[in-house]
Design brief:
The protein is an alpha+beta fold. It folds into 3 domains: 9-92, no CATH class; 97-165, Anthopleurin-A, CATH 2.20.20; 224-307, no CATH class. Helix content is 28%, strand content 22%. It has helices spanning 47-50, 73-76, 116-121, 170-176, 181-187, 210-219, 221-261, 300-307, and strands at residues 9-10, 15-16, 44-46, 55-57, 65-66, 83-86, 90-92, 100-101, 113-115, 124-126, 134-142, 145-155, 159-161, 167-169, 192-194, 205-209, 265-268, 271-274. A 4-stranded mixed sheet has the order 8-11-12-9. Strands 3-6-5 form a 3-stranded antiparallel sheet. A hairpin with a 4-residue loop joins strand 1 (9-10) and strand 2 (15-16). The radius of gyration is 39 Å and the shape is elongated. It starts with 8 loop residues before the first strand and ends with a helix.
């Protein structure tokens, strides 16, 4: 790697023969970058920017220039990140990606590019068989931390109305697609995390791309169909059991009311005590029928008068 060295001072031009900086007298500092100092040109880039365009340095690649301000503040600080490399001395990292650009402004206009973000806003989706024409490196926030991802662009002529690029929440996947936690684990991690717009203190919303969900269900169509049948049976049985529990609860509540009114029972510290059934209610009460020994007088005073 090129290192900062002492300037090769030329008395006639009063400048460094290597970097081109001009000095009033011979400099004594070793902040010459070892290459010409100039502005960045087309076809050149910094090493830190190469990954953003899906490229990396080839082995033994050397810088061809050093980008600095007019006051040469970067070279004075010996900032190695300002070395410029020719893109000819780089190679593609991921050959499966479409051409990568530093930003959307660098994408050629003839590509008529539209990003997936814009497509979602306009409710567009790629036509069947359409391929992305470009990508850019963008930032996302997940669990409070920022990270970078590839944003795809399509030729706008290769789009149509549709929602395949839209996202769906985890809750809707469970309610609309009947996906359990096990199926969500098979689907994989969410495609996007967003802050909850309704409750800022709530966990991040987990969003899945609809096109990915549909492709996943299509690839697992047979297993998914079997799961839906099993789930429907489970839901029916669950509702049936819930209804039974509801009825049983209502019957127990009504039986308690009867016991409280019954002349054979009294209310103690430990609960209701029945003189007829001190060990508990008979079998099948109140599930099948109410207590057969229920005895109640609406007007007990009238009963006493009849006894006399």
């Amino acid at each position: 790697m090129t290192k900062f060295t002492y300037h090769d001072y030329d008395k006639n031009t009063k400048s460094c023969k290597v970097c081109g900086r001009v000095f009033g007298s011979k400099p004594r500092t070793n902040n010459c970058p070892g290459v010409p100092v100039r502005k960045r040109k087309e076809g050149e880039d910094f090493e830190v920017n190469l990954y953003s365009i899906n490229r990396r340095l080839k082995d033994n690649a050397k810088p061809i220039a050093y980008a600095d301000y007019n006051d040469f503040s970067q070279s004075k600080r010996r900032d190695y990140s300002n070395y410029l490399y020719s893109l000819k001395d780089t190679e593609i990292v991921d050959p499966l990606l479409p051409p990568a650009y530093e930003s959307s402004a660098n994408i050629p206009k003839e590509l008529n590019a539209i990003s997936e973000v814009e497509m979602r806003q306009k409710k567009l989706e790629p036509k069947q068989g359409a391929e992305p024409v470009a990508v850019t490196r963008e930032w996302k926030k997940e669990d409070g931390e920022f990270y970078r991802y590839w944003l795809y662009y399509y030729n706008e002529r290769d789009t149509q109305s549709g929602d395949s690029l839209c996202y769906i929440t985890k809750g809707r996947l469970k309610s609309e697609y009947s996906l359990s936690d096990g199926w969500l684990n098979k689907l994989g991690k969410p495609d996007l995390f967003l802050e909850n717009p309704h409750y800022h203190r709530s966990p991040m919303m987990k969003l899945y791309k609809i096109s990915r969900v549909r492709d996943f269900l299509k690839a697992n169509a047979e297993e998914y169909a079997e799961w839906l049948v099993k789930r429907d049976k489970f839901v029916i049985n669950s509702k049936r059991l819930a209804e039974k529990r509801k009825i049983a609860k209502e019957r127990r509540s009504h039986q308690n009311e009867l016991c409280l009114k019954c002349q054979s029972s009294t209310f103690l510290d430990d609960g209701i005590f029945c003189a007829v059934h001190p060990m508990g209610l008979p079998e099948g009460v109140p599930e099948d029928n109410y207590c057969p020994d229920y005895f109640y007088f609406a007007d007990y005073s009238a009963f006493e008068d009849s006894e006399t």
